[in-house]
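Hi! If you just cloned this repository, the fastest way to understand the data is to look at a raw example. We've pasted two of them here, unedited. The first protein comes first, obviously.
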Amino acid sequence: MSLTLRLLDRNSPEDQALLVTLTNGYALDAAGGGAGLSTHARAILGAAFATHPTTFALVAEEGGAAVGHALCFLGFSSFYAAPTVMLHDLSVVASARGKGVSRVLMAAVEEQGRLRGCAKVMLEVRDDNTVARSLYETSGYEVSGLGGSLYRMMEKVLP
C-alpha cells in the first residue's frame, strides 16, 4: 500500500467536506457509535473546523482516494508546562483496514506534535475496541493516571 499523508486545509471547502465525509463514515461504524453524525453536526463540522485555530486533521490517501483520517486539537498541560495533542478521531475505511494505515496516521500525529512543541499525545478509546487498544499499546501508549489512580473520562453536554 502506497500512502500519501497530508494536512487538511481548513480554508478549503473540499477539505472541509472531506472531513465531514470521513468523520461521518467513522461515526456510522460500530467503533464510532454506529449512528453517524447528526444532521446538525454534518451541516456545520467543516465550518467549525475552519474556525477552530488549534484543530488540525491529517488524511491518508491511496491513489488519490481518502482511506483514513486523524482529527486532533491542541491543549495544554500544566504539569509539563507545554502544549499537548489530543487525538480525537482516528479512522480507516473498511477496505483499507489491516494494512497499517492507522499506524502511519499515528506516527504522523506524533510528528505534528513534535513540530508544534507538544509534550505528549493523548487519546481516548472504548474498552471494547480491542483492535484500537492493541494499536495504541503497541505504539507505546499507556493508560494514564496520577498518583496511582487512573483517569476516567467524563462529560457534560452543554445546552
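Ok, and the second one:
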Amino acid sequence: MSKKTLVSLFAMLAVLLMVVAANAQSLNGNMMKAKVTFSFMVNQKEMPAGDYTVKLVGSGTRYLVISDARGNLTTALPNGVLASRVSKTATLVFHRYGDRYFLSQVWGQGQDLGHELPQSKREKEILAQGQRKDEVVVASK
C-alpha cells in the first residue's frame, strides 16, 4: 500500500474510534441538538444544513463529535473559553463571511466555560483577505 493510502486508512480508523468513544463515553450534560439552516465548515470539512447532535466526549483529552442523522460526521479538538456570564441556553456560534460559515464555539446550557474551535486554514485565508466577519448564534432545540 502507498503511504497516502495508509494515511487515509489511519484517518478513517481514528474517526471510527472517536464515534465508538462518543457512544461509550458521552458524559451527562455534554450533548446538545441544534437545527442549522446553512452549510458550515468544521476544520476542513463542509457539513450540510440539517439537524445536528454535538457531543463532548473523552475523559482526558476531550473532543467534540458533530453529527447529523444522514451520517455526516466530524470531530474537533476545542480549546476552553471562559464567558463573562453563564449561558442560559446551549448554543453554537458561527463566524460568517458572506455566505461561508465556520463553527467557532459550542456553549452548554448553564455553563460559563465553552469550547472554542481553532480557526481552519480556509477561515484564516478569508480573514487575510479582509472580509467582514459576523457572528451567527444557533440555539439548541
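That's it. A detail worth noticing about the second one: The CA atoms of residues 85 and 115 lie 15 Å apart.
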